[in-house]
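C-alpha cells incoming
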C-alpha cells in the first residue's frame, strides 16, 4: 500500500463489468421479486446492506444473477443514475 499523508483522500477505483449488465440484472431481479409478491426495493436494500443473498428470490435465477456482480458495482450504477452522472 502506498504511503500517504494523514487526511489525504484515497482514490477508490475498480474494473467494472459495465453499467448495462448491472441494469439488466437489476431489472430481472426486480421482476422476479415482484412475481413472487415481494417489494423489490425493500429486498434489494436488505441485500445491499447485508450482502445476504437470501433477500433475493431464487425464482428465475434472480439470486444467482445478483451474485454475479459485486455490491459496490450495483451501488455505483444506482448512484450514477440517481445523480445523473
Amino acid at each position: 500500500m502506498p504511503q500517504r499523508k494523514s487526511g489525504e483522500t484515497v482514490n477508490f477505483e475498480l474494473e467494472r463489468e459495465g453499467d448495462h449488465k448491472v441494469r439488466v440484472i437489476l431489472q430481472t431481479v426486480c421482476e422476479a421479486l415482484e412475481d413472487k409478491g415481494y417489494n423489490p426495493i425493500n429486498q434489494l436494500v436488505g441485500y445491499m446492506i447485508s450482502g445476504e443473498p437470501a433477500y433475493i428470490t431464487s425464482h428465475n435465477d434472480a439470486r444467482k444473477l445478483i451474485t454475479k456482480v459485486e455490491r459496490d458495482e450495483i451501488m455505483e450504477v444506482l448512484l450514477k443514475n440517481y445523480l445523473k452522472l
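note: The radius of gyration is 15 Å.
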